[in-house]
Structure prediction request, 90 residues.
Amino acid sequence: MNNYQYSDKEEVALKAARRHRRLLHQVFSSTEGRDVLSHLEEYFQVDLPVFQGSAGNYDPLDAMKRDAYREVFLYIRRQLALAKKETTNQ
Prediction:
């Protein structure tokens, strides 16, 4: 068990983060939510490498955009995993 004493400000931030994770889980754990997330992942092609094109002909702005799309999905997936972990640990 963690013996760290959180400050009041940290406690508020932790509670807010947990609340947001629960909301994300509530939205994306439904069949419709999973379908929407899968559709968006496919539409934004987040499974592809950020650098597209032939070697030496990469568009850095396109790569930046792809990386930003991917980061959003990584964030959502991580928050969903944490929410699931929190609900099973309680």
About this structure: The longest helix spans residues 60-89. The radius of gyration is 18 Å.
